[in-house]
Fold this protein.
Amino acid sequence: MKPDLRKLQGDDPADSYRLEDQVGYWLRRAYQRHMAIFTGIMGDLDLTSMQFSALFKLRELKAVSQTELGRLTGMDRATISGVVARLKRRDLVLYKPDPLDKRSRIIALTPAGETLLIDALRRISGVTELTLEPIGAAERESLRAILQKMG
């Protein structure tokens, strides 16, 4: 038998709820702050944070399947598909035959993708620094550790 939530919380659930006490509210606010900073610093490169992540992983791994790239960057299948398609339209990535499976293709950076990524990498520490500016060094490490546990 399920407990009656109204009895546990009173007649009006809104009586015991405050939006500003919810972790999701503050995570969303922090994410919005981070994305505004990212866009401000990277805006002229016409590069989203997800595109940056994909380009970086491709540089790190040299070439990888789209499925694996999505897994490694924390993107679902539909999202990584769109990200790769937009990068390909800009000639930042290319498809190559998979040497291990002739039916599959792998994704790799183009020289233009490498050049854009280098420019973005020169700026990315500024994004992180400005995002974390309101908190001290010890809090930053705690925040990273907590977020890694949650992810």
In short: DSSP finds seven helices and three strands in the chain. The longest helix spans residues 111-132. The helical segments are 5-9, 23-42, 49-61, 66-73, 77-89, 111-132, 137-150. The beta strands are 63-64, 93-98, 101-109.
